[in-house]
Write a structure and sequence with these properties.
By secondary structure, the chain is mainly α. The chain is 49% helix and 3% strand. Helix 5 runs antiparallel to helix 6, helix 6 crosses helix 11 and helix 11 runs antiparallel to helix 12.
Length: 332
Amino acid sequence: MKTVELLPLHCSCVFAPYICDFVEQKRALGHKYNSYVEILNQFDKFCILQSVEEPVLSADLFSKWCEKRLQENDTTHHMRIQCLRSFAEFLRNNGVEAPANFHPLPRPRKTFMPYIFTNDEIRRFLVAVDRQCRTVNANSPIRHLVLPVLFRMLYTCGLRVSEALKLKVEDVDLQQGTLLVLDAKGGKDRLVAMSETMTALCREYRSNESVHNFESDYFFPAPDRGFYDTSTIYDRFREYLFAANIGHGGRGKGPRVHDLRHTFAVHVLNSWAAQGKDLYTCLPILSTYLGHKNLNATQQYLRLVPEFYSEVTNSFETSFGTVFPEVANEEL
């Protein structure tokens, strides 16, 4: 495994020495801690704006930090509070005044129901991608080659879109058919196996002269030789949904690009169910493949199998012969 770059601290407020020691302690225990470093960098700026002159984490300062911001989602709000609570405990343990008692931590509301594509919708979506990518864009000369492979990888490998976009050429083993996903959600690294057809498609894609000669470290390079922004992929995704005659409920209602990952998980579970496998026994395999921190996240998919999507279960066994979905690569 390669060493993943750790996000640097940029602190200059009165708490800066403590923040550095706090992060150093966490990283000494093996945590990358990148997500919390981002929050602590924000806290540093917050303290400067609040004109904090003494390294004292007052109850008033803590309360101001914990106020929910305009258009901040519940998950981000939760993480900000959780991070500062951990830092407050560190401060107290080092003789610095900080709050010791807290109200119950607000839990993010999880009311979103993922959109699970049917097999026919997946087929129509990929056909739409291929048709829309027939034209070369002068400002993005290999986008028409990148996107058909990218969207197939998102579905057949269940990757998060950021994981796929940040894959480097050296992370993709075209001989073994594996993807090395580094520093994913939760700071985890994992190996992801591709189906034979997905591997063959990746080989064909990388052997294309235009792609091969496009100098970039990334497997799916953007026009600037870096990696695509997720918002760009989302815009194309909406365009392809419309072309495939798949309805969209508007931003925040889906389908989202991330629903391709949800669909992968449900289709795999439906396949196992059709084969008569014990889903609870198989669940750790899927959890590891998806890079979930624990089984709780993976178990959420069980409520979608198979009653809610019986049409997927009935047709899936004849459509896919292996655990991981094969690539639909034909023009229909």
